[in-house]
């Protein structure tokens, strides 16, 4: 399984960029896909997850109502739409895949990781 994330960059507070994660190497219908982030000097934390088969979604409280996770079956791609960005959203964002029907917010439960894409939010 390979995950390729892109879409990061330097943005202003309030911007609405979208991250993409292209997945390959398996059939992902029984996977859970997640986005995590790691800010400078902090531990990696859960942002959002989606069950591929039924598109059920989960969010961290810090992003609920601002971020939206979705997936495209045709493109084998998972998206993270980020709205109303704040400077505290600055981090490297990672996509991850969990080979399970059951979602998880734990880093340790994900089997595959992408390389990360950096998002810097200026005030």
Characteristics of this structure?
123 residues; mainly beta; 7-stranded mixed beta sheet; 11 strands; 0% helix; globular
Task: Please characterize this protein's 3D structure.
With 123 residues, the protein is mainly beta. Helix content is 0%, strand content 50%. It contains no helices and 11 strands. The chain has strands at 2-6, 9-12, 18-24, 32-38, 45-51, 57-59, 67-72, 77-82, 91-98, 112-113, 117-122.
Low-confidence stretches: none
Rg over C-alpha atoms, rounded to the nearest angstrom: 13 Å
Structural class: mainly beta
Write down the overall mean pLDDT. 97
List the helices and strands and how they pair.
Layout: E1 2-6, E2 9-12, E3 18-24, E4 32-38, E5 45-51, E6 57-59, E7 67-72, E8 77-82, E9 91-98, E10 112-113, E11 117-122
Parallel strand pairs: 2-11
Antiparallel strand pairs: 1-3, 3-8, 4-5, 4-9, 5-6, 7-8, 9-10, 9-11
Condensed summary:
The protein has 123 residues and is mainly beta. The protein contains no helices and eleven strands.
């Amino acid at each position: 399984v390979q995950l390729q994330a892109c879409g990061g960059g330097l943005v202003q507070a309030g911007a609405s960029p979208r991250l993409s994660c292209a997945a390959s190497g398996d059939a992902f219908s029984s996977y859970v896909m997640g986005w995590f982030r790691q800010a400078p000097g902090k531990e990696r934390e859960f942002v959002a997850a989606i069950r591929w088969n039924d598109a059920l979604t989960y969010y961290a409280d810090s992003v609920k109502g601002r971020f939206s996770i979705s997936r495209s079956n045709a493109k084998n791609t998972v998206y993270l739409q980020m709205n109303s960005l704040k400077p505290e959203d600055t981090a490297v964002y990672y996509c991850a895949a969990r080979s399970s029907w059951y979602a998880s917010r734990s880093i340790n439960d994900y089997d595959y990781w992408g390389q990360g894409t950096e998002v810097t939010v200026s005030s």
